[in-house]
Request: fold
Amino acid sequence: MSSPVAAELEVAAVREVSEELAGALSRLVPQLSSSAPPPSRAKLTGIATADATTLFVARLGREVVGMLTLVTFEIPTGLNALIEDVVVDEAARGSGVGAALVSAAIAEAGRRGARHVDLTSRPSRQAANRLYQKMGFNKRETNVYRHDLG
Reply:
């Protein structure tokens, strides 16, 4: 039997960004990163309409409660798929929103022909890390490097 929350939860890929959606995502981004400014509607539209990115949004009823970006691109060894910028509104955490977003991204990556999906998550995000492992993601022994450009 599904929970009332699950019955109201809808995850969909976004191709058109309304003012209402841009406002909701501007509320979510600071919950993900304190250093990244909220994206403009124009920037979100660029992400939503680009071939390499799929912007997923989760709604409980009419309220936007989460987002995720799937990035896919060809490299010589095959199609790469990355999940980026997963965020669930603090008030909706623990209600299955994150799992629904990730499941939608995995399905889309498979539909596009990817053999696997990668993501990164800070160790301090313990609940997110538990979710990813529960969903079948395996922790890889690798180094992640970043070169800041300014």
Notes: The longest helix spans residues 97-112.
